[in-house]
């Protein structure tokens, strides 16, 4: 984890330092450096901050706290993401409205319960473009939208708490955008709009990687989308719910698993989020055997590309058919 942390931070920061020295004269080199930084950003998001905010990076909570700020460094916010991901997504996985991961804009349909529009018929084609833009939306507007939403849900009960957090969010974003975008506009030997396009290309790499990896775990034909009963309860226990709504993929690719922070073992992560991802592969056999013992599903796609194919299929079905299996 230490080696990965140092490496991913370097891959993210070093190209930006080179850009900010003012020595980059060619457009293609500017784009290349930003794209390399995008891979580092994705590595930080999936392999460092994810464990840190789950308190599974280290037994030392201060280490987890400060490494969680690496999410702030790349333009998002650790406090807001902790509510959205740790609390809501991990508690109410694949439950419409409660799980924000399956509540996209109207032109995307991720559950059988969402109203279907004509445009959804083509979402299996155009979704990938919007996946690439997802982190641009995240670091600019989505954090503020979620703050307001979470305040209404009771997560910021006192006004000083909300205001203080808002100032922190603005401060971190100003620091990140200043280093990643504003300073390069002055220092790079390129027009401001060229730098902006290179910045967007960086985010496109990050957004496409991160969003695709997370979507493959929950939006596939084998996963379910349960609805609460009239009393607001979900059938079954929490652990079983995670097995019905989550899927693994590409379990044999160690290098790929290393880069994406073990997120190909989503079942293990959802059941045991307090365990560092470096242990998922070893415990996956125990989890699979236990699921079989109790007659519960253990969804697993043999490769990344087969999982992509299944996600593509699911997007197409959701775009054309009402009343799919909902769990």
UniProtKB/TrEMBL annotation:
Keyword line: Membrane, Transmembrane, Transmembrane helix
Domain Fatty acid desaturase positions: 26-299
What does UniProt give as GO cellular component? membrane
Q: Where are the transmembrane segments?
A: 7-25, 31-54, 125-145, 166-186, 192-214
Q: Fetch the Pfam families from UniProt.
A: FA_desaturase
Q: Could you tell me which InterPro entries the record lists for this protein?
A: FA_desaturase_dom, Fatty_acid_desaturase
Molecular function GO terms recorded? oxidoreductase activity, acting on paired donors, with oxidation of a pair of donors resulting in the reduction of molecular oxygen to two molecules of water
List, in alphabetical order, the GO biological process terms annotated in this UniProt record. Answer: lipid biosynthetic process
Q: Under what name is this protein listed?
A: Acyl-CoA desaturase
Q: Record the organism.
A: Christiangramia oceanisediminis
């Amino acid at each position: 984890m230490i080696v990965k942390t140092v490496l991913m931070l370097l891959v993210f920061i070093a190209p930006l330092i080179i850009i900010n020295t003012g020595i980059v004269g060619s457009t293609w080199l500017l784009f290349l450096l930003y794209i390399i930084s995008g891979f580092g950003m994705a590595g930080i998001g999936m392999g460092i901050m994810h464990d840190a905010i789950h308190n599974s990076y280290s037994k030392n909570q201060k280490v987890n706290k400060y490494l969680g700020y690496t999410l702030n460094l790349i333009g998002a916010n650790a406090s807001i993401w902790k509510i959205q991901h740790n609390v809501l997504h991990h508690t109410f996985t694949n439950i419409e409205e409660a799980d924000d991961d399956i509540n996209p804009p109207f032109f995307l349909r991720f559950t059988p319960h969402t109203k279907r529009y004509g445009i959804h018929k083509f979402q299996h084609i155009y979704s990938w473009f919007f996946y690439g833009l997802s982190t641009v939306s995240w670091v600019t507007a989505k954090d503020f939208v979620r703050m307001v939403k979470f305040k209404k849900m009771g997560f910021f009960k006192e006004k000083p708490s909300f205001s203080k957090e808002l100032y922190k969010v603005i401060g971190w974003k100003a620091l990140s955008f200043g280093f990643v975008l504003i300073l390069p506009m002055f220092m790079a030997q390129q027009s401001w709009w060229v730098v902006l396009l290179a910045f967007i290309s960086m985010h496109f790499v990050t957004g496409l990687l991160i969003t695709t990896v997370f979507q493959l775990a929950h939006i596939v034909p084998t996963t379910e989308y349960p609805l609460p009963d009239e009393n607001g309860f979900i059938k079954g226990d929490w652990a079983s719910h995670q097995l019905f709504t989550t899927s693994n993929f590409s379990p044999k690719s160690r290098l790929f698993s290393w880069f994406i922070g073990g997120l190909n073992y989503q079942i293990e992560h959802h059941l045991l989020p307090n365990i560092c991802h470096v242990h998922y592969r070893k415990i996956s056999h125990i989890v699979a055997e236990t699921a079989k013992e109790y007659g519960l599903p253990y969804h697993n796609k043999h490769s990344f590309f087969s999982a992509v194919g299944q996600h593509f299929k699911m997007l197409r079905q959701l775009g054309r058919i009402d009343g799919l299996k909902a769990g």
